[in-house]
């Protein structure tokens, strides 16, 4: 009798530890997702983007009035705020009509030209009222990315729908060395660039092996752009992103699809997201992570 009692106690203890571990795991994913949603609402998040204006060489007028080269049609925005002058590899800003713009949080008055983007690709942050913008470069294109820090999208945001957390989508994986050092990635603009390859990730779903090519962006994690059979149905049609831990010395790591997240293009039409390369379009439904958001 004592043996049976001890066995019951042992099993109960193990079940309790298993349940505790499962609960801790679910909480960790929920906490990660909560931070992810909070980051989207920050000034440098994706929900407040309301403009992307590609510059022409020379003078580019900026304002809400018809006829401006870079026209941002918002009732509160000035009709003609100033000029972006794009020459060589640099962009210069000039105030107009006695407007005052903050550049890196310093007010600039008058019409003295200020370099806001240099040949090294360093951009300064510009503000007027609750609007903020900076220069971005995408290969041969240079443009203005504009944010409205009081955007309606921020007020309307109610979170991102997602699949239920399922630990079965937390998979052991092995990263094998890349055959080539570079991975070709195309973005929504149709531009193709070479990214540093970290290798090919191998993992198993329902006893079948799959692989994904991985990008090394130089940060603490590695980055993957992937698509699967849920794309365009329950998840974003152009694919999703996921970060994975860097592997140990034997190449061992994991991929947790519960942390698969939408690219910026799911939230705004003014982003320039990378698309999954053909080899990263999985022939399986990954029913984990974030679901589709909006209609972009």
Which tags fit this structure?
296 residues; alpha+beta; Tumour Suppressor Smad4; 2 domains; 6-stranded antiparallel beta sheet; 18 strands; 15% helix
Overview of this protein structure:
- The strands form 4 sheets. The chain has a 6-stranded antiparallel sheet with strand order 1-11-10-9-6-7, with no helix packed on it.
- It has 2 helices and 18 strands.
- The protein is of the alpha+beta class and 296 residues long.
- Strand 13 and strand 14 form a beta hairpin.
- Helices cover 15% and strands 36% of the residues.
- The protein has 2 domains: 30-44 and 158-280, no CATH class; 49-150, Tumour Suppressor Smad4, CATH 2.60.200.20.
- It is elongated.
- The N and C termini lie far apart (65 Å).
